[in-house]
Amino acid sequence: MPKYKLDEIDHQILDILIDNTRTPFTDIAKKLLISAGTVHVRVKKMEDAGIIKGSSLTLDYIKLGYSFIAYIGVYLQNTFETTFVIERINQIPFVTVAHITTGKFNVFCKIRARDTAHAKDIIFMLDAIDGVYRTETMISLEESINDKKRLMHSIFNDL
């Protein structure tokens, strides 16, 4: 991976892209008083260095009918089954995040469902995976903070 040292212009470009990944390079260039070609070259270098990895799309899951969020702790019969279980969890599209963890659970998942009946079906899918001993579910009453932008701004301001 190429080594790339970020300078102030890179930070400013990233700052703008963090707020809106779809900002045209020409708009960034005008705001920073540089050429669009410079923005393009710098973004390409940051992509090549692995600093920028694609862009993301933010969906309104409530408008799409998936307002129910739950967190599920998964206990495994044996930790050596972790890879197998993660592969099976990855086949359940309603599991949007899964972490291998230390502590109480072996795996910790976030699910999105249409309602409680749908969530129950997803939980049963997780329970049915070979190697899963049991699960423990916590229902989210409200997603109060979901803002990666603040962290990204903080990281780039510290550099």
Question: What would you say this structure looks like, in words?
Answer:
This protein folds into 2 domains: 8-55, Orthogonal Bundle (Arc Repressor Mutant, subunit A), CATH 1.10.10; 68-139, Alpha-Beta Plaits (2-Layer Sandwich), CATH 3.30.70.920. It has 6 helices and 4 strands. It has helices at 8-19, 25-32, 36-48, 82-89, 116-127, 148-158; strands at residues 68-76, 95-100, 107-113, 132-139. The mean pLDDT is 92.
Key terms:
40% helix, elongated, 4-stranded antiparallel beta sheet, Alpha-Beta Plaits, 159 residues, Arc Repressor Mutant, subunit A, 19% strand, alpha+beta
Briefly, what is this?
The protein is an alpha+beta fold and 159 residues long.
Sequence-ordered SSE layout with sheet pairings:
Elements: H1 8-19, H2 25-32, H3 36-48, E1 68-76, H4 82-89, E2 95-100, E3 107-113, H5 116-127, E4 132-139, H6 148-158
Antiparallel strand pairs: 1-3, 1-4, 2-3
Give the overall shape, derived from the CA principal axes. elongated
Q: Note the run of SSEs as H and E.
A: HHHEHEEHEH
Number of helices: 6
The overall average pLDDT, rounded, is 92
- Share of residues in strands: 15-25%
Helix content: 40-55%
Strand order, largest beta sheet: 2-3-1-4
| CATH C-level label of the largest domain | Alpha Beta
Helix/strand/pairing category: alpha+beta
Total count of strands? 4
Please identify which CATH superfamily of the largest domain we are dealing with: Lrp/AsnC effector binding domain/regulation of amino acid metabolism (RAM) domain
* Rg value: 20 Å
